[in-house]
Amino acid sequence: MNQNLAKIRKAPKKDYDNFRKYFAFACVDLVILDGKSVLLTKRTRNPYKGYWHLPGSMIHKTETMHEAAKRSAKEELNLKIKITKLVGVYESLDGFRHDVSHGFLVQVIGGKIKTDFQSSDIGFFKTLPKKTLPHHRLVIRDALKAKP
How far is Cα 89 from Cα 64, in angstroms, rounded to an integer? Predict the structure, then answer.
């Protein structure tokens, strides 16, 4: 892991809200498969509060995309992962925020799944719930095609 990770700080809400009015956010999304079922969590905050989504995070200054993916897996799911493949780059443009997301197919190599405050529910789905983030549907579709 990058030594700079200790320096990662969260932006104050006022700065975050101002930034999202003008700029896109670089993000990572994690595709964890069990056969043809995909792990989704139900969001407790905006954007897309109440929707099912892939676990993931914004990429913080001083961390690589791979480091962000590993941090996100640990923070959101209590899992240690191995990145298998970059599935693609996807955009989500909505009234709340503009995300440029890097979708990764990952393999769980340790830990026991549990969610944090960002999710109210978790599950593996063969058929995606109706309220699944639109760009995550594309990431999942492409990950299933790319699965070795």
Answer: 15
Selection from 116, 124, 133 nearest residue 53 by Cα: 133
Sign of the CA dihedral with 37 first, then 43, 47, and 50 last: positive
pLDDT, tens digit, for every residue of 8-32?
567 787 877 777 787 788 999 999 9
Looking only at Cα atoms, what is the longest distance across the chain? 44
| Mean pLDDT along residues 98-106 | 94
Residue 46 and residue 96 in contact, taking contact as beta carbons nearer than 8 Å? yes
Whether the bond between 47 and the residue before it is cis, its omega within 30 degrees of 0, is: yes
Mention every residue, 6+ apart, whose C-beta is less than 8 A from residue 4. 62, 63
DSSP 26: E
* Average pLDDT along the chain: 88
- Give the phi and the psi of residue 50 in degrees, each rounded to 5: 90, -5
Find out whether 41 and 118 touch, Cβ atoms under 8 Å.
Answer: yes
In 10 A of CB 10, how many CB atoms?
9
Average pLDDT for 87-114: 91
pLDDT at 119 over 80: no
pTM of the model: 0.86
